[in-house]
Amino acid sequence: MFTGIIEELGKVKSVSHGSSSIKLSICCHRVLENTKIGDSIGVNGICLTVTELGKDWFAADVMPETLRKTSLSKLENSSMVNLERALRLSDRLGGHIVSGHIDGTGTIISIRKEDNAIWYSIGANDSILRYIVMKGSVAIDGTSLTVAYVDDSNFKVSIIPHTSQVTIIGSKKVGDVVNIECDVLGKYIEKLISGNAQEKVGKSEGISMEFLAENGFA
Predict the structure, then answer these.
(1) 85, CA 20 to 30 Å: which among 2, 26, 53, 123?
(2) Could you write out the DSSP letters of every residue in the chain?
(3) Tens-digit pLDDT profile for residues 55-101
(4) Which listed CATH number (3.40.190.10, 2.30.30.140, 2.40.30.20, 3.40.50.300) goes with 8-85?
């Protein structure tokens, strides 16, 4: 588990390609403190296992399924990445609960500056947008952000200068692909409600307004 509060920007040292997988080596410093082989580090929001350690770098293997579902395949030598070590029970939860398991990707469709803030509009498909809630939390490339707008084709976040400076979002351009992890609580609630509905009707019908009203949600 992670919090979505980025600890450090790392730089890709090397990308070794297999037939349909890659091995990433990343230069960094802070996230190596007390880190050992087998530990988890969030790389652009993706939970990866440390398989090798050097004085100022670590390596992780990326399986084909991860490459298919994330933007890691676009990384090159010297690419900058967001890094976060796994959450400790004694840590402050400054962001929100982030699993490091990406739901999918989105595309930046516009960037607009407003005084000291920068607005990012991110296009995504229905499987992502169904879990995006106004004023709720979303992790973009592993960074915990608050949703400031959402409709049926995109959502928007507004970031402060500090976030732009200490994460990779400040270097993003229109057309760039980002990793998205929706708030896990919404997915669990949907699963539990859907399961309860299916037990009652004996078949899969999903959630309807009638079901919500019957169970006191509408």
Answers:
(1) 123
(2) -B-S---EEEEEEEEEE-SS-EEEEEE-SGGGTT--TT-EEEETTEEEEEEEE-SSEEEEEE-HHHHHHSSGGG--TT-EEEEEEPPPTTS---S--B-S---EEEEEEEEEEETTEEEEEEE--HHHHTT--TT-EEEETTEEEEEEEE-SSEEEEEE-HHHHHHSGGGG--TT-EEEEEE-HHHHHHHHHHHHHHHHHHSS-----HHHHHHTT--
(3) 999 999 999 999 999 999 999 999 999 999 999 877 777 888 899 99
(4) 2.40.30.20
